[in-house]
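Build the 3D complex.
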Amino acid sequence: MKLIYQIPRNSLAWLLLAQAAVIAPHMPRLPVWLIGAWAFVVVWRIQVFRGVWAFPGRLVKGLLVIVCGASLLFGYGRLFGLEPMVGLLLSAFILKLLEMHRRRDALVVIYLGFFVCSTQLLFSTTILASAYALLCVALLTTALMGLNQSQSHKSPARSFRLAGRLVLQCLPLMVLLFLVMPRLGALWSVPLQQNTATTGMSDSMAPGDISRLTRAGGLAFRVTFSGSMPPPPQLYWRGLVFSQFDGRRWTPNRLAGHSEGELQPPPGGSPSRLWQRLLRVDGAPVHYEVIMEPSQQFWLFALTAPRQYSDGIGMTRDFSLRYREPVSKRLRYQVTSFLDYRAEVEPLPPWRLQQELQLPEDFNPQALQTAQQWYRQAGSAQAYIDRLLDYYRREFTYTLEPPSLGRHTVDEFLWQTKSGFCEHFAGSFVFMLRAAGLPARVVAGYQGGEVNPLEGYLLVRQYDAHAWAEVWLQDRGWVRVDPTAAVAPERIASGLRSALNERDSQLVSSVFAFDGYGAGTWLNLMLLRWDAWNYKWHRRVLGYDARMQAGLLQQLLGNISPLRVALLIIGGGAVVLAAVALSVLLSGRKPRRTPATRHYLRFLRKLSQAGLSRAPGEAPGDFARRVVARRPDLEEPVLAITSLYQRVTYAGQPALARELRRRVKRFSAGRNLFR
Amino acid sequence: MPAANSFRFWQRRFWRRRFQRWLQRRVPAQSPQTLDRVKLFIFPSAAGFSFLLVSMLLWLVGTNYENNLIIGLAFLLISLFVVSILHTFGNLSGLTLHFVSSAPAYCGEDAEVEIRVSAEGGRQYENVLLCWPGGSTAVANLLDSRECHCKLFVPTGRRGWLDPGRLLVESCYPLGLLRCWTWLDLDVRVLIYPKPVYGGKVPPSHAVDDEGELQAEHGSEDFNGLKAYRPGESLRHIAWKQYARGRGLHSKDFTAYVDQRLWLDWDFFAGFDREARLSRLCYWVQEVGKTQSEYGLRLPGVEIAPGKGLAHKQRVLKALALFEVETPARQQVQAVKMQAVPVQSVKGPRA
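Done.
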């Protein structure tokens, strides 16, 4: 019979546990069959270890490979891309369990585990995910340690303690390397997640979309202003501009190839000088930094009108910002905006007019007719706008759950249901303006936000999603008009919650509770604190790049030369390692004292303060007699304590230790008597 | 190719000797020995190199995906490697190895050597491997105890004083990424008896002069008396005279003045070479040792008076073991020293 290598029980147990821990965060992304294969393999491996089953034959292994391959192929529909690659890695990680014939194979499994552990960080980079990854590393290290312990090692908890200590000892050195080791940019381009569900604002707007988004909850982005923050009614985070209406759905303007150039910046996002010239700014600039959560979409959010922005961002012809690729991980960008601006003041050329006045045919006849009639009655554009806003103010209600609309959405909304959310107001408003011959468009983005009092940054959440209108007026260019502000001014001044009636509030209460909207409660404070940590984490850790590194080194070293950096690494490393070496080599040098000995030593200290010290090597009994001879007044406690100590230590009566402690605590040699 | 092979052979031998000399200076023979910085060597193992490769790959992944956390993970693994240098070193440093005893063995058997591994202080030592090249491996764990005794078996090749060479003490604990080791000369000496080879039946008694014939049969010598005849006794021994006198059937009892002292003599196996003679004598010693008879040993230049008992047997075997052994100078000194030590269990010189 062939002798098979059995990896130590301790190591196998930890290895299986580590594997489960490492795979767990990938679970939602994995095809079901792969998970099934995993369970199968684990059971088989345990049976092999117990000696019940043999290692599987070629047939079973072949079958497993086919199952894994097929589940990857059908689960993801493609073989290239991040997720199938991670799936492939995971299958190797799983299947290798059944090929663990030698110690080296176990090593391969553990090393694969480190890789899999790193891939979870491609999908999530939160503090929790990182702490979890650290735990996974500790578990894998435990398995690795188990491989190097003797077969007879029987204390799994001890292995984990040791490995955990080892990992903790590594942290200072890791931090040093992290801070100081030179950073390179991406060496070649790599595919990031595809086919991931987009979150946040979508690229079109139909009635009900934004109210749905509001209920989805979650964070959209965080903003840090480098100066003072503009007042909340000014905080219109402009994202998308919708100029195209098909009767139900608003979409961005996609007409391209016109003589004046594309409507969107070329790939690579270089700023377009021509479109910049359309913007005239005035007043004081507002500088701020946005950290955006991944949205899987191109567009970014900024206050109008953005003038300067980070690399990789381009501005479209309608002054919204786009990133060079979909935002698939947290993105940090800086923008300088001027709140006092005039956009596209020159008369719109015919092709632009055509875009901004476009209306679908055979929709909303009543609205078309009424608009022309009211515009004639009003006489001027401003008067017409005021009349419309007045109409909203008088007759409409703001609600999260508006009645559903049929074919003529605007007609039905304006004259029948008369209740809606911001997209209803913005959509119908723009329709009415266009019907009256005024160029107008819908803008979608976020409005407002909540200030985190701990760090002073602004939190913008999905329920701050909003839609408003822009109308082009002679000599003034594009002017922002928010019909929602007419219906529910509280919405703009102090956020969504204050604008909702009780029933609507209940609808979104779970979202509010989770996002900590209830101001002042301890839960809210904790959530804000947690968010502040996340924010710092993102800025300091995830955002640590070559630039920040250069700043830090500048601060530490004065000027940065390779020699100085090398000296910093060596010097810092030596200090860190010396600390670890001391703790490793000196560990356990101190004799362990039993509690009884500690209490007795305390008793001795008290006596020596009174001038009675034990001679080296003097037995406790002898010492007690000597003390009693000099201080007869202490006879009772000294003899009692000594006897207790002797009984605990030598007579094996540990239960008396507590009594000993009590007596020692009460004991006083009364040195004041002597002085 | 033979020329090249032999060149390589000499080259290797040259380097090995240089290394041995260097080692001799750096870690001189001694027992007990405490492991320290001077004596210990440390180098990444194959697993360690692949671990570094894994870290580098992770760093590459992190750099390429511009993911600081993966870069951090790669640095964590590198730190793990660096910190485990200290731990692996710490797992040997401070250990004291002490050659306790060795039991003599017959040539060809594995000899048993006992080594005590101990540590001062409260540090824990785990999975420390001890082995002689070609011998068995023992594992020392000092977790809650402060010392442990390891029994090691070394293969034996020749009679005489066996020097098993340097003891390999190594440890890859805790992570197996590094191997820390040393080659210790603990002054271990093991007495190796000749390999017993069947040399015919042991001569039952002394009969040195008689040509090997078995004359010491019953009653072949002096008449001792008469005793009642029991059926089955040789008819030749019946005292016919007494029978004729009508005193009944008696048989004559001759007490052979048998010399109970057996001399195991070098000359028994004339014609064999030295080792063959010693091996056969050794076999006889084993055989006679099982009986109660006294036996002595005569080798050229060595004579051990007859005696019996374990100590005597060991003395005789030792004489056989050390007869005309060509030992290197250092070992001869050892061997002389050893004479003074009781043979019960051969102890190391400084034990």
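Residues 9-149 of chain A form one domain.
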